[in-house]
Amino acid sequence: MTRKKILVTGGAGFIGGNFVQYMVKKYPQYDIFNLDLLTYAGDLTKHKSIETKENYFFVKADIADREIITSLFKKERFDYVVHFAAESHVDRSITDPGIFVQTNVLGTQVLLDASKEVNVKKFVHVSTDEVYGELEFDPSTFFTEETPLQPNSPYSASKASSDLLVRAYNETYGLPINITRCSNNYGPYHFPEKLIPLTISRVLNEQRVPVYGDGKNIRDWLHVIDHCSAIDLVMHEGINGEVYNVGGHNERTNLEVVKTIIKELGKSEELIEFVQDRLGHDKRYAIDPTKLETLGWTPTYNFETGIAQTIQWYLDNKEWWEQIISGDYQDYFNKQYIISK
Hints:
- The chain has 11 helices and 12 strands.
- The chain is of the alpha/beta class.
- Strands 3-2-1-4-5-6-10 form a 7-stranded parallel sheet, with helices on both faces.
- Strand 1, helix 1 and strand 2 (about 30-35) form a beta-alpha-beta unit.
């Protein structure tokens, strides 16, 4: 029987990296291709445990490089594409919007064109709840798949643009697609510039923890492994053309998150430092994942168990995040990676 080939873009990043490991281990009968440009947030050291597996392959490439992407698709004839690759840090999008348009919009178009040419069975586009804009502090309101797109940052605007491109390729060309929009992820291998790993690393080093504004902005937290299982389900069983929201039912203010971590680590809240608020900082995100749950998915982590597991992971893997902060992880690509073994 012919082995299925799955292309995962952005597989050296946080969510994509966890998904690559999840798929390599769960589906030894699939060939999993990890395509990543290895920009500052791309880290291959997380894949030491799978890099010698017979069903894992790494390709270093820019998704916006049409010649390379087209050639790769023609050679490998992928069955499925799961598209994570994106510039994703809101603060960086505020200072340099152009790279977000280049990668998130134009890069997505290149992948869509290549997928159309080789007739992939499914293009799964991994997006974000930030495309919906913000919610008021009203616990009865949630983002659904019918919520209008109202992005408020260059990052979320670029993701909304790519969502619409994906939809258009389904409507215009008949390319089979699904779009997933997730709430804030957390868990192992989270890049240390983000709130939870930043807080953990700073608290462990007795450093000040910056909190934007008054810390009352609310996010719905989703454990990354629950997100991986959701995407797996959508890839295999998602109805063509449908959007699925992925949320964890775990709303917390940023300040609550920081205080929880400080308490778990037995440190003082005096480490908290309130700083000037981010430009265009959305008040609240909250996902209604009912549509995905009717497909058969439920999260396995609540925030209490998930954050405790995450903190323990960072305690057990201090070497990993210290080499990320120092920049040493960028030297790991010195070895030669090839497309096929």
